[in-house]
Amino acid sequence: MFGNVIFLIVSVLSLLLTYNFMRTSLTYKNKQEVDQILSYLNKYLTQTYFAPGATKTQYNSILVKPEIDYCKRSDLYKFYHPDIVMKDTYTFREARGVIRETLRSSYYDCIPQMTYKLKNTQYLPRHVLPIQLTVPFTYYDQLVHKFQVGQESLCLFQKYNHLVTRHVLSHKDNLMNNQYQYLDTMRKSGLDQDCINNATFIPKTYRLFNKLDCEEFFSYLDSAEYKTLIERDGPQFITKVGLEVHRGRGIKVLFPDETKFLQDTYKHGKRCGIDRSLLVAQKYIGNPLLFNDHKIEFRVYWVLASTNPIIAYAYDKTLIRRCISPFDKFSLDKEAHVCNTAIVQSTLQKKGSNLFMNDENSDESELYIDWKLDYLQDLLLKQGKIKDNKWLQNYLHPTIDRMIIHAIRSAQQKFNRDSRLAEFFAADFILTDDLQIYIMEMNYNPQTLKTTLARQKQHAKMTQDMIEIQNAYLRSKYLRFQKMISRLATKMNKEKRPLDSLLTNKTIEEINDAYVDKLDQGIKISEDNLFRLVMDENLPGTKQYKDLIQQKCI
Ligand SMILES: *[C@@H]1O[C@H](CO)[C@@H](O)[C@H](O)[C@H]1NC(C)=O
Ligand SMILES: *[C@@H]1O[C@H](CO)[C@@H](O)[C@H](O)[C@H]1NC(C)=O
């Protein structure tokens, strides 16, 4: 009994001593050396990877004042306070909406007063970036444009949600041009036709600004085959304006009048090569799968988690959206054929709805059917169109993933390769009556809706899942660098050697290896995260494409 009490007292005392020791032992070991190494790393990595060269304009839409020694202070602080990176999440967002609300309720918003600056206002930058900031999640990509990367923003221990060259995937003309070049390259290298078919992610498209495509298109319009087809199946093509035209703006369905106008404009092909408007004609999907007589599209949210190497994830829950008007292939009503949001929005605006340009949430509740593709599967099972009750896992998801992979591969030459960068996209797909799918368009900063409580919850969960991915890669990288930096700093200190003398080819190679995004150091993405891996260049051979592309096609 007495022994027990003494034992207890001794235990408590030793605990107290340990605690005191730990408290006082937070010394900044080798601080000078660590500081030097971090400065070197930010400089080296920015020179070697992504260095956009800041365009210093007065205008800074997020109202942050850049500070030249920011990364130096931020990385040093995080180096000695691992919990900031490993346990917490310091973020901010300037745009209102579900994403910001979720960031605020689930993580630490370290610039809560942040709003974006409206044009023509007199605000001066009022904020500075907090040194704890780990995962900025901005709407605009200011941190790469108005700041000097590696000094004023995007430090070693940060992960950003933007990629400067994201438009190579989201601009319509880029998506199409990439698809063309990609397929052309495959043809030229003599790959099998089934490789090429599998790599086709948008419907057949003619670039009217390209002489050959344009001539081919107009001679097809004059063909007997074309005449038969429009009589039998209705419109065969839509035209779209290139660049960043989304949500139904700039889309024309080639009804007879529109066709005649186009033929006149291009003089049945004689003006091909002269008229260089960024117009494309795309095969119109005249046999869409219908839901209660309406055409439907579904939107797949996906993230490019890194570009060094390329790692992508797609979200399991998918928004299904329907056209406003019932589908009739002979209808002359554009809204029966094109069900993009802008048309929806202008219709709502006519109804007096209040929609703001920059608000991420718009109300179109009646046009969204469900958030799950399971629903589609049930429907198809009921209609007898499919028999497999694992159709989603066995067919639809792999097909979606394969198309995203090909879209990425067709654009990857143009990405900035850097593990600090990421991007959040949505791809809109259409499903045909015979269950083929095509990508209709790709957007970044996709709308996140909060029209119903359920939808708001889904989007909140998606935001958390996205942040978990950002954090997972950042934390793995942090641990890899922390080990390396500690080792180098100790060596400098013990052997009284300058940093330069330690920067051998081997060390540089280690730095580059540590900078490659991968999940290691015991970091994993949780089981209930609804993002599934789509592509990971860390994996060997066709595994990096989940075996959805055969070796002979690469
Ligand atoms: C180190 O790398 C440089 C450039 O890659 C090369 O020229 C040099 O020979 C290498 N040195 C050693 C010792 O391998
Ligand atoms: C085409 O894609 C499917 C998966 O959707 C895959 O199983 C098949 O092997 C691919 N074919 C080729 C030639 O890559």
From TrEMBL:
The chain crosses the membrane at residues 6-22. Pfam families: TTL. GO terms for molecular function: ATP binding; tubulin binding; tubulin-glutamic acid ligase activity. One of its GO terms (cellular component) is ciliary basal body. Keywords: ATP-binding, Ligase, Membrane, Nucleotide-binding, Transmembrane, Transmembrane helix. GO terms for biological process: microtubule cytoskeleton organization. This is Tubulin-tyrosine ligase family protein. The lineage of its organism: Eukaryota, Sar, Alveolata, Ciliophora, Intramacronucleata.
